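re the bet — no i am not wrong, look at it urself. input seq straight from the record:
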Amino acid sequence: MEDELQIAMADLDEEKTLQLVEERIKAGYSSVEIIETCRRGVEIVGEKYSDSHYYLSDLIMSEEILKGVMRVLEPYIPTNDTVQGPSIVMGTIEGDIHDLGKNIIIYLLRSSGYKVHDLGVDVKPERFIQAVNETNASILGISVLLSFCVSSIKRVVDLLDEAGMRDKVKVVVGGYPVNQEVKEFTGADFYANDVTEALRIYREILGEEGPVSEF
């Protein structure tokens, strides 16, 4: 059964979406649950855009509504000013400028006190390696939405191997087109298509060094 909040998001009904978000906050839903439901709505918008039922402006609108949802949720997410624990480097791969999913994950991880170094979008493979070397990061998160950019992720993993750093860094790829086949092709350690799965992966990697809260 489709969720009412997911439907409102997919219908680009900003007023109803924000109203339902407020109601769920009061009802005790976690921020992760709310964001993930809205993200599924955005995914439906993307599918409708691919089927020519929605226009590019609708796709942009859905992302703006989701950003509004995150602003509503911000006061309810605990912040930790003492940044500690292992470093994480994240960025959107070269050729791709989509960063909404990446920004959600970074937002939640930083709220738990993790050191997350955001490289932004359209990041060259060499820049990822440089950042890992500079920060001594133990996790490298690479975001991708455009399938033709996947080969650049493989280049990042190959460069890590050439630099003798591969066994020191866990590589996580995330985004709409990633799957087991992409994971195997790129040589990444993990892949995730949604916020909930991504956070589970980071918990698994970090173990007891600093568990992510449920928000």
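see?? Residues 4-76 form a domain with the Methyltransferase, Methionine Synthase (B12-binding Domains); Chain A, domain 1 fold (CATH 1.10.1240.10). told u. also Confidence is low (pLDDT under 50) at residues 208-215. so pay up
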